[in-house]
Automatic annotation (TrEMBL):
Gene3D superfamilies: 3.40.50.1100. PROSITE patterns: TRP_SYNTHASE_BETA. It comes from Dictyoglomus thermophilum. This is Tryptophan synthase beta chain. Tetramer of two alpha and two beta chains.
Amino acid sequence: MSQVKFLLDESKIPKDWYNIIPDLPFPLPPVYHPVTLQPVSPEDLAPIFPMELIKQEVSTERYIEIPEEVRKIYKLWRPTPLFRAVNLEKYLDTPAHIYYKYEGVSPPGSHKPNTAVAQAFYNKLEGVKRLTTETGAGQWGSALAMACNFFKLECKVYMVKVSYYQKPYRRSLMEIWGAKVVPSPSPDTEAGRKILEQDPESPGSLGVAISEAVEDAVKRDDTKYSLGSVLNHVLLHQTVIGEEALLQMEMAGEFPDVVIGCVGGGSNFAGLSFPFIREKFKGKKIRVVAVEPESCPSLTKGVYTYDYGDVAKMTPLLKMYTLGHNFIPPAIHAGGLRYHGMAPLVSALYHNGYIEAVAYPQTKVFEAGVIFARTEGIVPAPESTHAIRAAIDEALDAKEKGEKRVILFNLSGHGFFDLSAYDQYLSGKLEDYFYPKDKVEEALKELPKI
């Protein structure tokens, strides 16, 4: 009988985060100030982030030590298990071996607390009293609410309106941990009021919610802003996933031929893949695949250029694959993937040919989620179903070609708060949305010229 679970002892929790920047075989484009259009300095970012996170954002150190206080909290759920999906393999009748790293065992049920705890810790060290943030599906908001609770910080969450109403129990979870949660766009900020004036029924977007959270933070001396994806330091903190997975794949006696993760902003994908990409840089033969929604396909159909991270143009200008900061994605249920841009590091790796990307419509990924639940028992979050869909297609391709293939993907969260979406799928009411090219082309006309 094949071994199913590969478990690491707590002593194997990584002691360092892996910073991929020093290993990149190409230079990263600079970041620019949204007003002056000059390269951003640490002082420019100081009103938004604590200095230690700013240092991590630009660090050229290959490894950054994880503080003991952070590792102590990590012990509540880390190391997370690696599973071999033997039942899924049998169902697909494939010669492929399918493994998944399961981040849904954390208290908030996703990979997000890997960075939330670190960010709350560094803010607390600098005397910050309150954090603001945005959240889509609520995975990031609940993770930061938990982290702020541990470090006795106030937490204000601007939750994308469509998800606020789709996923009311995510809001309840955040409030249990002491956070204040409002639907975005909200009347609490100038950015929110402006959007509500233009469209009172706006479903919101992560770009809108970011504008509100940043505006809130910069207007108060006791407050900083916390981001759950996209930026270098956030992706850095997630690399504990891949570092553990490397050890667990060694326990399994295999090395993946392909590593897969869903992408919205890029953090869970980077967390699993970056340590494996390090091995790719060293000569290991491995494919790395990012999977995104067909309705918000920044990598597969976006433009690689400088853009704002938010609608109100308050964030620094990042070079990334983007659909335009004004792009409002359709109200798909994978709320964590409804972002107009992709992390600069992930974007640069894709632009330079080190990773691949594929996009799927939501009925196709929910089909994969149901197959996975019926074979492996875990109901996955809608975001993670994108990675499952790609893993299934890889396994079927291996079957068709009659070749063994080792597949590893990140199951970044559970779907217990997403059952209404599964209800829609099972009743045949779930709609597919596709990239509205005319709207995006219009949005891209407003990009800054750098």
